[in-house]
Design a protein that fits this description.
The complex is a heterodimer of chains A (about 525) and B (about 500). In chain A, about 40% of the residues lie in helices and about 10% in strands. Chain A has 17 helices and eleven strands. Chain A has helices spanning about 15-20, 30-45, 55-65, 110-115, 160-165, 185-190, 225-235, 250-260, 285-300, 315-330, 350-365, 365-380, 385-405, 435-440, 445-450, 480-500, 505-510; strands at about 50, 80, 120-125, 170-175, 190-195, 215-220, 265-270, 305-310, 415-420, 455-465, 465-475. The model of chain A has no long low-confidence stretch (mean pLDDT about 95). Chain B is an alpha+beta fold and about 500 residues long. Chain B has three domains: about 10-310, no CATH class; about 320-430, no CATH class; about 440-500, Arc Repressor Mutant, subunit A (Orthogonal Bundle), CATH 1.10.10. Helix content of chain B is about 40%, strand content about 20%. Chain B is built from 17 helices and 14 strands. Chain B has helices at about 10-15, 65-80, 185-205, 245-260, 310-315, 320-335, 335-345, 350-355, 360-370, 370-380, 390-400, 410-420, 425-430, 440-455, 455-460, 470-480, 485-499, and strands at about 15-25, 80-85, 90-95, 105, 115-120, 125-140, 140-145, 160, 170-175, 215-225, 235-240, 270-275, 280-285, 295. Chain B has a nine-stranded mixed β-sheet. In chain B, helix 3 runs antiparallel to helix 4 (about 245-260) and helix 16 (about 470-480) crosses helix 17. The model of chain B has no long low-confidence stretch (mean pLDDT about 90). Classes of the chains: A alpha/beta (about 525), B alpha+beta (about 500).
Chain lengths: ~525, ~500
């Protein structure tokens, strides 16, 4: 695991790995091997990956090591992909039995762009089936554990990605976020996770859960890493009609500028409805304490802090749990056993409808079925207006709250909004599996940005009971750079106060006796 | 074979008033599919014109074909529709193997074009058909049921699906209910589809080959007792794919429904299949247990918002539409609306027009296409346009007759050669030696031989019975196998017998 320079490559951030590669101090093969070794040693317990092909990864690394051309900043760096991202020739299941054994004939745009940038695919990470869940316990294949406390969940649905990056099994990873599936797992594993503006990262080749909400984004150890990975996957894609034909803002540059620590003139709104006065029910005191300290720190960096009310945010949870299942009920209709994946009952004794029904009965897990049934109901003739129609109206109201807060019409608003990323720290495995509503509450803070399509980042802001707490920064659509700038400032200030990076606490804890947060 | 009781058609009309309605699906002739870049060529090996998008593979996303949207707007404009300034695609959700995504991407409550009309003429009377909507959607794949006797799913061993057709742009044109057509209902239905087809051809948006399924109509028919203010319960005859069948299906449904109503029973609101062989319909699935399609706006596609200026440009650039063209041609050719209607019914307007353009006088062009050529198409059981002769060749044939190179009888033999693929008319005249004989030695010999061989007849002519010369002309024509010019032969005979 150690390099000539004495660095633990699996505890090093990606930007630094890129520098070492660039100066020739390490090779892609060495980095890739270091991560594969960690995977071999620890993933049996951690359960972050669904598919790893060490030979293919090493062959790819060797190819990159021997290539002449300059592929760019990410060349030679390994990356893990959530199993919802379609990869040509590499098994892709979206965490579901119904796609077991499917090897796609094409690459998602996100996968193709990472390939073109010269990255090495380490493997496909575990996830809640079809990205439906907040704990990765809905995976059809395995449980994934939180590296900070292996009896706790790593968040979800991108829990395989969060566990892999936090646990040193990948330098960074791609996740997808429909209602919080990047930000919540990042928060509970001490990572930086960003959900880009809807339409700014291509959805082509992401197995759809809820088309109007799904976005892919980076999960990384630092804000700068997240920005670098985001730049590699983002930008317009003609294969996705909803992709915005606008260039990405300079994200890495904003992250670097933010890390200089000056936030003077930046107006930050604290959302009252997300853990503020009169809305603190369900929020752990430790989470609110860390959040309050972070707000104070941001103020000390020159930011102007004010409380902002967004009343419609209270309706985000019910609206989300009508819209997302409605779209899912339609998106998942293609899994009928006719063309690919699982087929059950094709033995001559069942007719077509029965084969489809048996395939779906056995191929989908309980949470997926719950949401398909919910969505089918919400879209039914006679109920559509009362459920789906009303939920869309709520969505409009939430967007209006964001617009008002950001002063889109009058210029008299804040630059970003902040809140805790999750109401609680990582909860114990199995503690909410019998209570879907309690499970859904994990997304309370992340849903508004999803419904409005605006960008939001989660950045660590300390520990509560020894477990990571995340702070969420939300910005207007296409102003993802503001998320990176504010998050980087907070990260830098905390690192300076702590004397080391946030995730180093986990590495040190694994290495020796626990230290105070 | 149908066991339906039928009422005589004329008797139906003594008690009931029909209302018809049509939903017509047209496959657009775009080079690529509606939501991906796959080719739309007909007849390719199964599943060779597919990609992750039209196979609905997980993760794939649609991108709307701009040419298909433009074609749909042009159809709407040609039908006098209002063009939406903003509308969306919608998902129509249902399970069937031929729809790869588990839903069909279509339009629901926001169609691209609304509120148009199309005037059709039957027996000199004009019927206005109101168009409710024109919208854009994607075609499904094709199921092939193997192992059964009927090719239908019942009794089959297994089924195969060909997704080449899946995702081909499909325009659906829906009429409002058409009342007040009475006995003409079947013909109005046929005339509507015929006229629609002409418009689509003029716009160049589809090949409209009905035998390839480019255009398929669902025909709604209902009956209500004469004087009743309420319309009856309708049936929907699906996928009727020839003009003749459209007419027959209405006629059949009227006769069948009248019998049901006469018996005091209720019409079932259902879809029915039309059978070409018997001209009858049989029940499909009942609409009363209809699927709830759970329509909702397609989140994977952005709304269509046609720029008004662009739409105006499209409207200005529309070609001359069939009705206007017919009016102009009637005048140019000097024919009556009834004569024009014959040409329309024969599907010959374009053919005659092209023949005229190739140099034939309009009267001759009409005579050929409605006469000899129509007869041959009828004998062969094909459309006029499917005959292996081009308007240019017909014009050449007309020219050869006018020049006296051949006569009408020879021209029919020349046509045989052209249809047999022997080349253009002039080449066939040459190769088959079909030119009219001049006053050659051969003809003189034939004339002399006829006189010698029929001394009685010759004597009668000489004796003043001039009309008897016809028998001798016949004899000459026989020996020359029709190649002689009858007038010339008659003149030569008279010179010899009456001089």
């Amino acid at each position: 695991m150690s390099t000539p320079a004495g660095t633990d490559l699996t505890a090093t951030d990606a930007a630094e790995l890129g520098r070492l590669l660039n100066t020739g101090e390490v090779s892609s093969t060495e980095i890739t091997r270091a991560y594969l070794d960690r995977i071999a040693a620890d993933d049996g317990e951690l359960g972050a990956y669904l598919h790893v092909d060490p030979d293919a990864a090493l062959a790819r690394a060797a190819e990159l090591d021997s290539s002449e051309g300059d592929l760019g900043a990410l060349a030679g760096l390994p990356v893990a992909l959530k199993d919802v991202v379609v990869t040509e020739g590499v098994p892709t299941t979206s965490g579901s039995r119904i796609l077991e054994g499917w090897r796609p004939p094409y690459d998602a745009t996100v996968a193709a762009r990472l390939k073109a940038a010269g990255t090495v695919l380490l493997g496909k990470t575990n996830m809640d089936e079809f990205a439906m869940g907040s704990s990765t316990e809905n995976s059809a294949y395995k449980v994934t554990r939180n590296p900070w406390d292996r009896d706790r969940i790593p968040g979800g649905s991108s829990g395989g990605s969060s566990a892999a990056v936090a646990g040193g099994l990948a330098p960074w990873a791609i996740g997808t976020d429909t209602g919080g599936s990047i930000r919540q797992p990042a928060a509970v594993t001490g990572l930086v996770g960003h959900k880009p503006t809807y339409g700014s990262v291509s959805r082509f080749g992401l197995i759809a859960f809820s088309s109007s909400l799904d976005q892919a984004g980076p999960m990384a150890r630092t804000v700068l890493d997240a920005a670098l990975l985001h730049e590699a996957i983002g930008g317009h894609d003609p294969l996705d009609s909803t992709s915005i034909p606008a260039p990405l803002p300079p994200l890495a540059e904003c992250a670097r500028r933010g890390a200089e620590g000056d936030l003077s003139g930046v107006r930050i709104g604290v959302v009252r409805e997300l853990g503020g006065e009169g809305h603190a029910e369900g929020y752990e005191p430790g989470v609110l304490a860390r959040f309050g300290e972070a707000v104070a720190l941001l103020e000390s960096l020159g930011a102007e802090i004010r409380e902002v009310s967004c009343p419609a945010f209270d309706l985000a949870l019910p609206a989300y749990y009508l819209i997302a299942p409605s779209e899912a009920s339609s998106n998942l209709a293609r899994f009928d056993g006719v063309r690919y994946g699982l087929r059950v009952g094709d033995d001559g004794s069942h007719d077509l409808d029965e084969v489809m029904a048996l395939t779906r009965e056995q191929g989908f897990g309980p949470e997926v079925k719950r949401r398909i049934i919910l969505g089918t109901y919400a879209l039914s003739s006679g109920y559509y207006e009362a459920y789906y129609g009303q939920a869309q109206k709520v969505r409009t109201l939430i967007s209006r709250d964001f617009n008002a807060a950001f002063g889109i019409d009058d210029g008299n608003g804040v630059d970003v909004l902040i809140s805790p990323t999750t109401p609680t720290v990582a909860f114990p495995i199995g503690s909410r599996t019998d209570d879907p509503i309690a499970m859904y509450a994990a997304d309370l803070c992340t849903l508004p940005a999803s419904l409005a399509g605006v960008p939001a980042i989660s950045v660590p802001c300390g520990l509560s009971e020894g477990l990571p707490v995340g702070l969420q920064v939300m910005a207007p659509a296409l102003a993802d750079d503001r998320c990176y700038r504010v998050a980087a400032a907070l990260e830098a200030a905390q690192d300076a106060a702590r004397g080391h990076r946030f995730l180093d606490q986990l590495v040190r804890r694994a290495a020796g006796p626990e230290e105070p947060a | 074979m149908s066991s339906d009781t039928l009422v005589d058609f004329d008797e139906v009309l003594t008690r009931y008033e029909p209302v018809i309605g049509l939903e017509t699906h047209v496959e657009l002739g775009t080079a690529s599919k509606m939501f991906c870049g796959c080719s739309t060529t007909f007849g390719a090996e199964p599943n060779t014109q597919t990609c992750p998008v039209c196979l609905g593979l997980p993760g794939s996303l649609p991108v709307a074909n701009a040419a298909a949207i433009e074609a749909t707007i042009r159809i709407g404009l040609a039908l006098g529709c209002r063009i939406a300034t903003w509308c969306r695609f919608a998902r129509k959700n249902y399970f069937y193997p031929d729809i790869p995504k588990g839903f069909q991407t279509s339009q629901y409550d926001e169609p691209l074009c609304t509120a148009g009309h199309l005037d059709v003429e039957v027996d000199g009377e004009t019927y206005r058909v109101e168009i409710e909507r024109v919208h854009l959607e994607e075609d499904t794949g094709k199921n092939l049921h193997v192992g059964g006797a009927t090719g239908r799913i019942h009794g089959a061993d297994h089924s195969l699906v060909d997704y080449n057709r899946a995702g081909i742009p499909l325009v659906e044109i829906v009429t409002r209910p058409i009342p007040g057509t009475g006995a003409k209902a079947p013909e109005v239905a046929k005339a509507y589809v015929t006229e629609l087809r002409e418009i689509l051809l003029a716009l160049g948006v589809s090949e409209v080959r009905m035998e390839q399924g480019n255009l398929r109509s669902d025909v709604n028919t209902s009956l209500s007792p004469i004087g009743s203010l309420e319309w009856g319960i309708r049936t929907e005859t699906k996928n009727v794919n020839s003009l003749r069948s459209v007419e027959r299906s209405v006629r059949y449904e009227m006769r069948r429904q009248a019998a049901v109503l006469d018996a005091g029973e209720r019409i079932l609101q259902e879809t029915r299949h039309f059978h070409e062989d018997t001209g009858s319909t049989s029940p499909g699935r009942s609409k009363e247990e209809a699927t709830d399609y759970r329509y909702f706006p397609e989140p994977d596609l952005v709304p269509i918002a046609p720029d008004e200026e662009w739409v105006e440009k499209l409207a200005a650039a529309l070609p001359e539409l069939p009705a206007a063209r017919r009016a102009r041609l009637s005048e140019e050719w000097g024919i009556s609306p009834t004569e024009m209607a014959w040409l329309v019914n024969a599907g010959a307007v374009g053919l005659v027009s092209e023949t005229v353009a190739a140099g034939a006088p309009p009267a001759d062009a009409r005579k050929w296409w409605l006469g000899e050529l129509a007869r041959r198409a009828n004998d062969a059981g094909v459309d006029l346009a499917a005959l292996a002769v081009t308007p240019q060749q017909v014009a050449e044939l007309v020219g050869l007759v006018a020049a006296g190179t051949i006569n009408d009888q020879l021209a029919r033999q020349v046509l045989d050669g052209v249809l047999a693929g022997e080349g253009d008319p002039a080449a066939v005249v040459e190769s088959r030696g079909l030119a009219v004989m001049g006053e050659s030695d051969e003809l003189v010999a034939a004339v002399d031989a006829a006189i010698e061989g029929n001394p009685d007849v010759a004597e009668k002519v000489r004796g003043g019975k001039v009309q008897a010369v016809g028998a001798l002309v016949g004899a000459v024509m026989k020996t020359t196998r029709g190649k002689a010019d009858a007038a010339t032969v008659k003149r030569m005979l008279e010179e010899r017998l009456l001089a």
